[in-house]
Amino acid sequence: MANPLPTLKKLTQRQLEELQLKIAAVQRKIDSLQQQQANLSSAVDSGFQTAIQVGQSDMLYAQAGHFSDRTKDEIPKLKAMEQEFEEQLDDLQDQLRTLFAERERYNILMERERVKAARAAAKSQQRQLDELAGQKRS
After folding, report:
1. Confidence at residue 22, expressed as pLDDT on a 0 to 100 scale
2. Is the dihedral of CA 11, 17, 23, 29 positive or negative?
3. Does the structure show a pLDDT above 80 at 56?
4. DSSP structure string for 11-60
5. 108: left (phi over 0), alpha (psi -120 to 50) or beta
6. How far apart are CA 50 and CA 74, in angstroms?
7. Rg (CA), the chain
8. In which band, very low, low, confident or very high, does the pLDDT at 104 lie, cut at 50, 70 and 90?
9. What is the number of other CB atoms lying within 10 angstroms of the CB of residue 51?
10. Over the chain, what is the mean pLDDT?
């Protein structure tokens, strides 16, 4: 019967790689949402600074205020989406830890089998040497 451990280890390794790609994708989405939030906040500040520099134009203040109101509505949505992705990331990282532990378990089992086979080979070789030594004495 063929040893299934190498196959299981390869399968686990492939699952690890796929999961790492998913984690990277989720992390990119989180980074993008954080950047969008920063950009919106910066745009609001910039709008008010422009209104101040131009000479306190009522029209610019009104536009900046309107944009600020829309931004205040948008940022919580972005934060909620970010939170969802953070939770998804936590779940994926838990899965990753589990797969790493599983792969390590396969490594340990494979090493145990290798040591067992080496001991059996050494024992067989010793038996053959003992048999030869017994034959030479006779």
Report:
1. 97
2. negative
3. no
4. HHHHHHHHHHHHHHHHHHHHHHHHHHHHHHHHHHHHHHHHHHHHT--HHH
5. alpha
6. 22
7. 32
8. very high
9. 19
10. 86
What is the b/e burial string over 79-100, where b = at least 16 CB atoms within 10 angstroms of the residue's CB? eeebeebeeebeebeeebeebe
- Whole-number Å distance between alpha carbons of 99 and 12: 7
**Which among 41, 31, 15, 39 has a CA at the least distance from the CA of 96?**
15
- Alpha carbons within 13 angstroms on the beta-carbon side of residue 63 total 12
7-18 pLDDT, tens digit per residue, is 999 999 999 999
Nearest to 5 by CA among 114, 103, 106: 106
Token match 């970010």: residue? Answer: 82
